[in-house]
Here is the input.
Amino acid sequence: MIPPHLVAQIDSPALVIFPETVRRNIRLAIEMAGKPERLRPHIKTHKSPDATRLMLAAGIAKFKCATIAEAEMLAQCSAPDVLLAYQPMGPKLARFIELIIKYPATTFSCLTDHPDAAREQSAAFAAAGLVVPVFVDLNLGMNRTGIAPDETAFALYHLCGELPGVQPVGFQAYDGHLRQPDIGERTAAADAAFVAVENLRSKVMEAGFPEPLIIAGGSPTFPI
Here is the structure.
């Protein structure tokens, strides 16, 4: 609770953060995941340097974001590893390259989900003298972005391995559409959706690629 004498001093509307509550939530997330290295929190909700620094202090080093502005905020906080969970194209691709060059201490990566996009990204990154890690974005049923987790995704991953300027490092498997109120039903749905991801993981390793990183889970499936 905020002491009453302080409430009167807060201009409204205002964002009020209770740091100890945030720290407790961060500790709980790490406890659930097993270790901070398994976490890549998305900062699209809080968009806050202060919240980011609390996560960094707890040992979380990898982050996701939705916009160039969010990516820059993370870099300004000295976040070591930042995924732009978006497929930058056109002007945004140029801005992303500027960001990568401006903040060399941060390792930036991005998504791709189509051969044409991969080729455009490849050409732009290579022209700037960069090799940027890319994650193939999988559509597990949300039908918003991503490529089907089948032979087309494998072909795209293989293509990225041949193109200059990009380095395929894994898959994003976002399943934010799985929100069944019953945890048993949600678990079964998440497990079923993840079979294709496991198959892709095995297939790219059989093709000689290093073990791919898997970025998985939305808030409803985090406990799973």
